[in-house]
Design goal:
The complex is a heterodimer.
Chain A (H helix, E strand, L loop, with lengths): L6 E14 L2 E14 L3 E5 L6 H8 L7 E10 L9 E3 L8 H9 L1 E4 L3 H4 L6 H12 L4 H14 L5 H4 L9 H13 L5 E5 L7 H18 L2 E6 L2 H7 L2 E6 L2 E7 H6 L4 H9 L49 E4 L2 E3 L14
Parallel strand pairs in A: 3-8, 3-9, 6-7, 7-8
Antiparallel strand pairs in A: 1-2, 1-4, 4-5, 9-10, 10-12, 11-12
Chain B lengths: L6 E16 L4 E17 L3 E5 L6 H8 L7 E7 L5 E3 L5 H8 L2 E4 L13 H11 L5 H14 L16 H13 L5 E5 L7 H18 L2 E6 L2 H7 L2 E6 L2 E7 H6 L4 H9 L39 H5 L5 E4 L2 E3 L16
Parallel strand pairs in B: 3-8, 3-9, 6-7, 7-8
Antiparallel strand pairs in B: 1-2, 1-4, 4-5, 9-10, 10-12, 11-12
Helix pairs in contact in B: 3-4, 3-5, 4-5, 5-6
Classes of the chains: A alpha/beta, B alpha/beta.
Chain lengths: ~350, ~350
């Protein structure tokens, strides 16, 4: 990464383990990816696959019983050390440096703005707090910037909205305000964790368009987490499919949808009602996502996979195989011809 | 499916208005028209899909039908097993309890719809005990049958809900709904909280049960692809009113209401090549407490004219079996679903 200037963020062999009374839960188990300037990386997977914990690990917003290993390399985009690379995994999570990075270099949008905003402070107070931390100390100027930001995310009458509390805004407006707050520190990386899942489909379309406009206008790179393959197709440039704490497939969005290679990705696509004829039986995946504790060796999808080979898939850990340029699959059956598990 | 089968449920001018009360004297200053003048027929063995955005009244409509919510006015006629046509809204409590054996409900959130202090056996047995349908060995036999029918195991009976995953809990909820041998089930966002792979299992289960037991469903969802997959006919609701009703295939291929078109085109297609065609509808869902004048959709509608601001369109049959509440239903050339 030190040489490739276009890589903003590189995660190498990230392992976030939760040390619980019942045992060690491997929420994120050896995740690696890179985010290039101006691109959107989509992370897709079902609940409990570790996609949220991955991004929370980047900002180190983890509970005390979580242990983090691996490297999280960020190329700083401002300040005196602009252009140099820091390893977030080695930083003190409570230190000044990390505080500057949260919001200033990497910002985050959450799924439920009602929970992410403080209910007892006005929208204006919460946005100006972030502006005063990262941009200016002047109160009046911060308020002007906040008004301008609210206007830029499509909130009408922004000066008045600044004085309102989160509950006074509709769900779509709240998410817009959340986005305004996230970009207020002029971050170079924006992490969006299921930002449109709680929204209606017509409002979702508005917010997705807004995010793309802002990404282009502010020169940001985006990590977009969702369980919805439709949203991934709409937003992402590169996609990481996660299952049981691991990336099982990593490809450009075109490749992923044209030639999905991991049996889990294929099964997930086939299970979508829109991929099936009306009234036909859906190709469901039997069983459910394993609990990430005391996992058996081998592929975690083994018990649900229609192509699993006993003695091969359940023996040892499966590594990532490159099946074609920009396309990696974590499947023991993947061959080098790009046909994945020959499905 | 539509006209060849006898009707099981006929809804006529159904309304549910919630009063808005203000001030010390709690004076009524207006109404939230959650369900506003709905007319609808559901046939035997049919799945009627009800789709709309949050707050459009689709859940209230579903609850009104089984009188979990008391409607303000209107008629709901249910044809029971013996062929007798009952007026659901005028039944007394005793008759209503009997009728509810034939009308059941499956809820959205499998975490809050099951009592955490009851075992699976007690949850599924409760409707049978309450209605005096079975007891003793017969009760055990029936509960075991039900649980196996929805794909759970006998060994699960003595466990509590927390021991199950979301999909399994939804199966428990379905077993409970099936206990009284119903003919009509309201599925209120029954698969919305589930992951795609598990959602597919539950949809398959609901369809299998429909085939083997001849059930009729009112399937409420905000997810268009689920609605398209499972429904025979679809109703699209907007701010308490029905915008469009039609057979699923025809409605998705060629909508007759601009709101249906907007819903279909807003949904992201699972195909990166289709990205450029993104369609974005402006504005937000209207507030049902003070809906816009005329057609409630007119402030967001790209085709709206002066007439739409003043005249409220009625739901009329535009083509055979196709109903639309738009003044220009036959004239507009609206786009159907994006192919993916």
């Amino acid at each position: 990464m030190a040489t490739d200037e276009s890589v903003l963020l590189e995660v190498r062999d990230l392992r976030t383990y939760f040390h619980l009374d019942e045992g060690i839960m491997k929420a994120v188990d050896g995740v690696s990816f890179e985010l290039k300037r101006g691109r959107t990386l989509g992370i897709v997977g079902e609940s409990g696959c570790g996609k949220s914990v991955t991004t929370l690990s980047i900002l180190h917003l983890l509970p005390a019983f979580a242990k983090l290993e691996g490297d999280i390399l960020l190329r700083l985009n401002k300040g005196e050390r602009k252009g140099s690379v820091v390893n977030l995994a080695k930083l003190n999570p409570r230190g000044k440096e990390y505080q500057r990075i949260r919001g200033g270099e990497i910002a985050m949008i959450f799924q439920e703005p009602m929970k992410a905003f403080s209910p007892v402070h006005t929208i204006g107070n919460q946005i100006t707090e972030s502006i005063r931390l990262h941009r200016t100390r002047d109160k009046k100027q911060a308020r002007e910037i906040a008004t301008e930001l609210l206007g830029s995310v499509g909130i009408s009458n922004p000066a008045q909205r600044l004085n309102e509390y989160p509950h006074q805004l509709s769900g779509g407006m709240r998410q817009r305000a959340m986005i305004a707050m996230a970009i207020s520190g002029l971050p170079s990386v924006l992490i969006a964790d299921e930002p449109t899942t709680a929204l209606d489909v017509t409002i979702q379309a508005q917010v997705l368009r807004l995010m793309n406009d802002l990404k282009a206008g502010h020169d940001m790179s985006v990590i977009f987490i969702t369980h919805d393959l439709g949203v991934i197709a709409e937003m992402a440039d590169d996609v990481a499919v996660m299952y049981a704490g691991k990336i099982v497939e990593y490809a450009t969005v075109e490749k992923l949808f044209q030639a999905p290679a991991h049996p889990y990705t294929i099964a997930l696509m086939n299970a979508m009602p829109s991929m099936n004829g009306r009234g036909e039986r859906l190709a469901s995946i039997e069983g459910s996502v394993p609990i990430l504790m005391n996992l058996k060796p081998g592929c975690p999808f083994f018990s649900r996979c229609g192509h699993a080979v006993k003695g091969l898939c359940d023996r040892s850990e499966v590594g990532l195989t490159q099946v074609s340029p920009n396309h990696w699959v974590r499947c023991a059956l993947a061959n080098q011809t790009g046909q994945g598990a020959a499905i | 499916m539509s006209r060849s089968h006898p009707a099981i449920l006929e809804i006529d001018h159904l309304k549910k208005y919630y009063p808005i009360q203000k001030g010390f004297l709690r004076r009524t200053v207006g109404h939230v028209k959650a369900v506003d003048d709905i007319r609808l027929t559901i046939h035997e063995g049919e799945t009627f899909g009800l789709v709309g955005e949050s707050g459009c009244g689709k859940s209230t409509l579903g609850r009104c039908l089984i009188r979990a919510v008391e409607p303000s006015s209107g008629q709901v006629a249910f044809t029971d097993r013996s062929g007798e046509r009952l007026n659901v809204l005028s039944l007394d409590n005793k008759k209503l309890k009997k009728l509810r054996q034939e009308m059941q409900m499956v809820f959205q959130d499998p975490f809050s719809s099951l009592n955490p202090r009851m075992t699976v056996f007690n949850i599924v047995a409760e409707p049978l005990v309450c209605n005096g349908i079975a007891r003793g060995a017969e009760l055990v036999r029936r509960v075991t049958d039900l649980v196996e029918r929805v794909g759970l195991e006998r060994s699960h009976l003595n466990r509590y809900p927390h021991a199950f995953s979301g999909g399994q809990r939804q199966r428990i909820g379905i077993a409970r709904a099936l206990a009284t041998n119903p003919r009509f089930i309201v599925c209120d966002e029954a698969v919305s909280a589930l992951d795609v792979s598990v959602q597919a299992q539950i949809i398959n289960l609901l369809q299998d049960l429909q085939r083997s037991l001849g059930l009729s469903y009112l399937f409420i969802s905000h997810d268009l692809s689920v609605i398209e997959h499972i429904s025979h006919r679809v109703g699209v609701m907007y701010v308490g009113k029905m915008a469009e009703i039609g057979e699923t295939e025809a409605l998705f291929a060629k909508p007759l209401h601009p709101y249906t078109e907007a819903l279909l085109l807003s949904k992201p297609a699972a195909d990166p090549a289709k990205r450029k065609e993104r369609y974005v509808l402006s504005g937000e869902v209207a507030n049902p407490a003070s809906p816009p004048s005329g057609c409630a959709f007119h402030p967001r509608c790209p085709y709206a004219t002066e007439r739409c601001k003043t005249d409220t369109p009625a739901l009329v049959e535009v083509e055979p079996d196709r109903y639309s509440a738009c003044h220009y239903a036959g004239e507009l050339q609206l786009q159907g679903k994006r192919q993916s």
